[in-house]
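Protein modeling request. Please complete all fields; requests missing the sequence field cannot be processed.
Requester role: graduate student
Desired output: 3D structure, token encoding
Chains: 1
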Amino acid sequence: MENHSFPELGLTAKRSIFWLLIMAFASYSYLVYNAGTEYDRGKSFYSESAKDGKLVFQEYNCIACHQIYGLGGYMGPDLTNVMTAPGKGRPFAEAFIRSGTAKMPRFDMSDSALVHLLDYLQYVGEAGNYPVTDAQPTWYGNINLKTDADE
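Delivered output (151 residues):
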């Protein structure tokens, strides 16, 4: 039986292979770490009013009953798309907040607080969609979401 072994590599060849692998790993790590950072992710339309609306959302503890992006309480509906879904929007959300329902109290918040809250919910609806549909993983480990704008 013949012995087929690999030829011995010299020290220079071993070091070259080592550094080539290190550079490949560093390049791939940089690519994965920075992939997707060119997307806005809603930062351009996160207004001061929406920031104040987030504080109103927290002050009234809306998350105790409602969800945003599937996180939060389960008594009320998910509010992620309440402002952007067909047949809903500002008048729909304002009516529920002002009048309440059998399970939701009527909130007597100021007009400015209501405007800020609605601006925050608008931001949430524009910044992302829930539940996620048509998610495609990429070869480098990120997820691409198909949105209405892509069609």
